[in-house]
Amino acid sequence: VSVLYWLDAMSQPIDFDGAAVTLSVVCMSFAVACVAYDGFTHKKPSHLRIALKVVASTSFLLAAVCWNAVGNRDCPMSRSFADALDCAMQTSPMSSRGYIFAALLLCFVGDVLLLFPELFVGGLVAFLLGHVAFIALFSTRSFDLGRFFAYGFAPQVAFFFWVRSWLFPKTGKLHGPVLAYLGVINAMVGCAIAGGHGPISVTAAVLFLLSDVGVARDKFIGYSLLNRSTLLI
Question: If we measure between CA atoms, which residue out of 187, 135, 134 comes closest to residue 156?
């Protein structure tokens, strides 16, 4: 259904608010399907799970394009999907929407790479660069270090050492990359708190952090439905 929808959207002017909602529903539906499939089968990644995850991640990225979250503000709202994508590609890379587009694109690449165990480091690097883009986004406004030290510093330090205590003994040769990633994603959350982008951005950053903890547990500690369920975050 989503493939047919995209083919139609490529050539027809559409209501982008409706398109974004539809793609968001597709994204969540396929993410739920991934979790349900894992829960019932307890199997390692299969072709079906890979397909479900890729469709979910692609739908999320396309929803952002349709909602004009990553495009130029001057672009008209009524246009074909191809025009919307072209608008997104023309966005200045140094603008806030450019940072969002880069972050979402890098996270999409990371999602795909993490589906293959042998490409785990590549996926980790892609997500790390995505978090760097989010840090750049949150840095577009003046920082309030007082807000960070009041609300973010102590919880983040405690969280960092808590994760380190049970995760790092299991990481083996990946100790360095995992340490770097944990540091960058904590910095991203700190920048969200200090950057003054509002509670929604801070909540999203914290949920991203919690989701990655589930991914780390699934990779290094062992399978559990709870770990896989963090895909929904």
Answer: 187
Contact 141, 88 (CB under 8 A): no
- CA-wise closest residue to 57 among 91, 92, 33, 85: 33
CB 207 within 8 A of CB 187: no
Comparing CA positions, the residue from 62, 178, 53 lying closest to residue 114 is 53
Beta carbons of 133 and 99 less than 8 angstroms apart: yes
For residue 78, list its beta bridge partners: 15
Q: Which residues of 190-209 are buried (b: 16+ CB within 10 A; e: fewer)?
A: bbbbbbebeeebbeebbebb
Q: Mean pLDDT score of the chain, rounded to an integer?
A: 72
| Residue that is written with structure tokens 């597709």 in the block | 26
Distance of CA 51 to the CA centre of its chain: 18
d(CA 197, CA 112): 29
pLDDT band of residue 216 (cuts 50, 70, 90) is confident
Written as six digits, the tokens of 8 are 């139609």
**pTM exceeds 0.85 for this model:** no
- Helix (H) / strand (E) element for 78: namely strand 78-79
CA angle 223, 226, 228 (to 5 degrees): 60
Query: What region does 220 belong to: left with phi over 0, alpha with psi -120 to 50, or beta?
Result: alpha
What residues form DSSP beta bridges with 148?
Answer: none
The confidence band for 64, taking pLDDT boundaries of 50, 70 and 90, is low
φ, ψ (nearest 5 deg) of residue 70? -120, 0
Contact partners, residue 186, CB within 8 Å, separation at least 6: 156, 159, 160, 209
